[in-house]
Amino acid sequence: MVGFVGSLGVGKLGSVGRADGLCSRKSVVVMGTGNSFGKLFKISTWGESHGIGVGVTIDGCPPRLELSPEDVQKELDRRKPGQSKLTTPRKEDDMAEILSGVVSGKTIGTPIGILVRNKNQIGKDYDNIAVSYRPSHADATYDAKYGIRAVAGGGRSSARETIGRVAAGAVAKKLLKTYSDVDIVGYVQKVQDIAADNIDVDKVTLEDVESNIVRCPDEEVAEQMIGRIDEIRKTGNSIGGVVECVARNVPAGLGAPVFDKLEAELAKACMSLPASKGFEVGSGFPGTLLTGIEHNDPFYIDEDGRTRTKTNRSGGIQGGISNGETIVIRVAFKPTSTIARSQETVTRDGVETELLARGRHDPCVLPRAVPMVESMVALVLADHLMQQVSEHIEPSLC
User: Fold this and answer.
1) What is the Cα Rg of the chain in Å?
2) Residue 374, SS3?
3) Distance in angstroms (rounded) separating the CA atoms of residues 26 and 357
């Protein structure tokens, strides 16, 4: 197996310094961590792309929340493959099975288990990548960390892992809507240099987003995006872009002032998605071109006596805490790594070669990334809503 500069040299059994992989005195235990997210509203995703199935365990959901399989399924249908010519042709129904935690249409306060079975696996498409690494994919780094990996479909590095996130996000959305009337809408804002710059973040709706296959609420720009993606798809290549997501009616006070700032939590959540490469909130990087007087959001008192801001360059978050305005974030996604073009690479044995990858892959991840970003935003907000409530429990007078 090929080694990396500065790596621990993990062998077949996780040992250090032994080419045969047998345990030495300097043995290393490689833990399979990083599969859980959240503090009070906590999720753990599991399963591989070509395994029996994928899913999620949700711990911390309050009891008596109305929840049906349809609540989960409608979100999974937006994420599933084979929706259009812009997505992977892999055909999966992605039907959700709620295994636990829900009785008679209501949560009961115990862990919620949701399973989606894999049905359309074609493992032979990945025979060549068992030997050769796909450039910019996770194949080589998974080998470097674990010394073993699920080759077919990319295993845990596959976007099928996000099924668990989207299923959990559906529950988080229901929780947020029920208790705080929070509305979360994501959409494709940019494909390469084609941008929808005139979206009204306070008025854009799910219906606007779902009106076309690229999930851009600007119909004219959407047609340009569709044409660009289809053009690239026909060449066996891929492209990236930006998903913007807004969260409206978020209560003021969510987040914490230091390490758990709300934008930091959102950034971690969204940057944990496959193919994500950048994160912005509010004015983002362009905000660095402004002066303080230009960037600051002036305060005023609205007709209901609430403190509001006249502008929203802060993106709904100030000092790491939500201020009650619409939260606006953007996530940049790179071009899909697995493409139908010959690329230079190396084998697991360290031999330079060329790879023409097979399999079924998205020419652009953006249309299916929209519900993924929405879900991660919902999971963060649900978790922080519960933290905020728990921090403000009135002491008993009894």
Assistant:
1) 22
2) helix
3) 37
Nearby residues of 32 by Cβ (< 8 Å), 6 or more positions away = 146
Looking up tokens 């044409």 gives 227
CA dihedral 375, 141, 87, 367 (to 10 degrees): 30
- DSSP at 190: E
**pLDDT tens, position by position, for the chain (398 residues)?**
556 555 554 543 343 343 444 444 455 566 668 899 999 999 999 998 778 899 999 999 999 999 999 999 999 999 987 677 787 666 678 899 999 999 999 999 999 999 999 986 554 555 555 678 888 888 888 888 888 777 766 667 788 899 999 999 999 999 999 999 999 999 999 999 999 999 999 999 999 999 999 999 999 999 999 999 999 999 999 999 999 999 999 999 999 999 999 999 999 999 999 999 999 999 999 999 999 999 999 999 999 999 999 999 999 999 999 999 999 999 999 999 888 888 899 988 889 999 887 766 789 999 999 999 999 999 999 999 999 998 876 665 44
What's the rounded Cα separation, in Å, for the pair 277 and 273? 9
Q: Quick one: how far is CA 361 from the chain centroid? A: 17
What are the CA-CA distances from residue 41 to residues 173, 184, 265, 277 (Å)? 12, 18, 13, 26
The HSE-up count of residue 32 (CA atoms within 13 Å, CB side) is 9
Give the span between the Cα atoms of 267 and 387, in whole angstroms: 18
- Non-local (6+) Cβ contacts of 240 within 8 A are 191, 192, 275, 277, 332, 333, 334, 335, 336, 364, 365, 366
CA distance 154 to 169: 23
CA distances, 169 to each of 43, 76, 231, 374 (Å): 10, 10, 33, 8
